[in-house]
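> example.struct
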């Protein structure tokens, strides 16, 4: 199947972007000068704000969304996902295809990103593809209260890291990722994790695909029900493809520095 045409409309029009152009655009500015991890979130939503159709995000994805979703993984040192999304979306191992591996190696990245999962309950199982077929030992971030038997079982197939008492604290996760030299953090959700990351003030960039549908119903929002301060974002890029908008917002720190 041919790739869907994607045009850039902000900051300047550019027609029919190649994968190489898209990767360069998304890579631009995605780093902190002091070496702290840069946190990119990526979500898809309908026009009326639904983040799922029939309980999953996949039904909302358009060809352009899928193209960019796959490309963004190429830029990541670590792909961070909440356990609810891993279970609902049926994640397998985080294994990029050979052409992606070649691109990463040619651009100074590790062959594969690390898959990092966030879970308090640790209802994840060592004998599943996530762990059995992992090209790189996954990371599991959990709490001091995690069930001991699950902690032990998962420790055989992954690095299980305590990063909070009753909830995993996103800032502790980032400290650990930085300690491991994993600075390009790509978070694919879900809403609970995104809400907690927003509340902890760690989101640097938000990539949002707006799919041209109205879904109605009771689908949830992108950021779960976690109290949080509003955070200003600046539109850095907008792409368009057959009615789908792919928006890239970065944190606007002007108010923070002038406060
Ligand atoms: N539209 C999109 O782009 C998009 C993206 C992702 C997901 N989704 C959808 O969102 C839905 C899932 O929502 P969700 O809110 O359940 O997703 P989620 O944030 O991935 O999962 C929540 C679960 O992850 C774990 N978790 C997340 N943050 C944690 C923290 N800070 N500390 C401890 N545990 C944490 C907990 O798992 P344990 O129960 O194991 O403790 C929690 O129950 C699915 O329907 C999925 O399809 C949509």
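> example.seq
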């Amino acid at each position: 199947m041919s790739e869907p045409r994607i045009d850039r409309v902000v900051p300047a029009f550019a027609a029919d972007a190649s994968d190489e152009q898209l990767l360069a655009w998304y890579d631009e500015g995605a780093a902190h000068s002091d070496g702290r991890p840069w946190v990119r979130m990526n979500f898809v939503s309908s026009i009326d704000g639904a983040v799922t159709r029939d309980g999953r995000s996949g039904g909302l994805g358009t060809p352009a969304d899928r193209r960019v979703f796959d490309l963004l993984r190429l830029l990541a040192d670590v792909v961070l996902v909440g356990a609810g999304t891993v279970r609902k979306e049926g994640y397998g191992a985080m294994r990029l295809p050979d052409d992606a591996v070649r691109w990463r190696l040619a651009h100074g990245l590790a062959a594969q990103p690390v898959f990092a999962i966030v879970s308090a309950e640790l209802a994840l199982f060592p004998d599943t593809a996530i762990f059995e077929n992992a090209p790189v030992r996954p990371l599991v971030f959990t709490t001091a209260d995690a069930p001991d038997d699950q902690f032990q079982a998962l420790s055989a197939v992954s690095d299980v890291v305590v990063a909070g008492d009753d909830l995993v604290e996103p800032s502790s996760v980032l400290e650990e990722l930085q300690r491991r030299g994993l600075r390009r953090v790509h978070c694919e959700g879900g809403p609970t994790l995104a809400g907690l990351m927003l509340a902890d003030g760690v989101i640097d960039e938000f990539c949002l695909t707006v799919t041209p549908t109205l879904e109605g119903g009771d689908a949830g929002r992108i950021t779960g029900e976690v109290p949080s301060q509003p955070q200003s974002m600046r539109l850095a890029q907008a792409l368009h493809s057959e009615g789908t908008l792919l928006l890239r917002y970065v944190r606007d720190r002007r108010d923070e520095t002038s406060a």
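> remarks
Residues 43-45, 51-52, 55-57, 60, 82-85, 88-89, 118-121, 123, 167-168, 188-193, 196, 224 surround NAP (CB under 6 Å).
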